[in-house]
Design a protein that fits this description.
This protein is an alpha+beta fold. The chain has 5 helices and 11 strands. It has 2 domains: 130 residues, no CATH class; 146 residues, Immunoglobulin-like (Sandwich). The chain has a 4-stranded antiparallel sheet with strand order 1-2-7-6, with no helix packed on it. Strands 5-3-10-11 form a 4-stranded antiparallel sheet, with no helix packed on it.
Amino acid sequence: MSNSEPHLTGLVESISTQNSDKIDTDAHGRNSVHMESGSLDSTTYLVLVSLCIVLGIPGIVLLISTHTNLQFNEVTNLTSSVGSILLSAVLAYLYFQMWETQEERTLVQQNQEEILEKQADIQEKQHEIRQTEKKALLDILQRDIQDDDCRLQISNHGAGAVVELYIATELGGTSDGFSGGQKNTQLRRGDSSTGGKIVGPNEKGVQMNCCPQFEATVDENTIEGDFSTITTSLKRMGLDRIKVRIGLVAVDEFGNPTEKSLLNEDIAIHQNMELDEIGNWKNN
């Protein structure tokens, strides 16, 4: 038996060294597993010690009462007190280990949340940089009105495309029972048989056409149509003046809208009044 002990000790040390080297050469995640495994072995050991204390108390009581002059109840009280102290110490240590492990996990979670927040900030800044680099810059070179139809010649001086371009209209007034409405009308390319709506980066002199639509409500009756249709209906209902707002709205490839005001006037209306009769609309 004495000859086999050195052999077993050497074998155990060899196996422990191999496992330690394997775990230490792994990634950081495996090192964490190694630490948790060590903590688990320590906890298991303490639990076994506690069980041994509890189960060994009766034997210790009998042994002491047999070999000393102390009474059985005296020995029982003494060993119970000592056992309680030992168990309390073991439980306190286990509680401390659990608290320390929980603190480490909380710290790791906080670090992960900080990393995620930093990554989100970086992505947001990168997105803002891309938006700045791909910003569309529109310039209205010319606009022409024929009856109620609108033709705009525009250039895009920016590095980003305009994916949507429309005329935004809004009517207002002070008459009782009248409430204006808002309407958007898509502009289409005049040089495209399919009526494309995209204006590419650095594209110059593009012809865009549309017939702006308007909306108004009088006494809960909603009217929609081109400018001459609206003015005729409103005039028949007894309205003489309305406020007209017209804007050009461009939407870039990131979905960001920008608006340029084309008209914001309080005008007198008459039946069959067309859009080209508004002098400021043509002159602005």
